[in-house]
Design a protein that fits this description.
Helices cover 22% and strands 29% of the residues. It has helices at 2-5, 38-44, 66-75; strands spanning 24-32, 35-36, 52-59, 79-87. Strands 2-1-3-4 form a four-stranded mixed beta sheet. Helix 3 (66-75) links the parallel strand 3 and strand 4 (79-87). The longest helix is centred in the C-terminal third of the chain and has 10 residues, at 66-75.
Length: 96
């Protein structure tokens, strides 16, 4: 959680897809303490700049900080077209 709140990165596997071929990319990540998990920050460093992103975040019951995350992503050189929080606690029929 502390690494997520501080927007730290972690090592991730090499991306085999040619992301240069896409103008829009959708990223889905878990939320830890109101911030995306560190792997989300790592993937931003791998994406071609200037792309438009759809951001979908998943948590048990917490919310992401939309203004902070959107500002961070835009500061990395991306446009944000979609922003959604999914909370499993609000999904009808979902149980752990």
């Amino acid at each position: 959680s502390f690494q997520a709140m501080r927007q730290k990165t972690v090592p991730i596997q090499k991306i085999s897809a040619n992301l240069e071929a896409y103008e829009r990319i959708i990223l889905i990540a878990p939320i830890w303490a109101g911030s995306p998990a560190p792997a989300f920050n790592s993937i931003l460093n791998c994406l071609p700049q200037g792309r438009t992103l759809g951001l979908c975040f998943v948590s048990g019951s917490g919310s992401s900080n939309k203004e902070k995350i959107t500002s961070y992503v835009k500061g990395k050189g991306f446009a944000v077209e979609l922003y959604t929080d999914f909370k499993t606690s609000e999904v009808k029929g979902y149980s752990k």
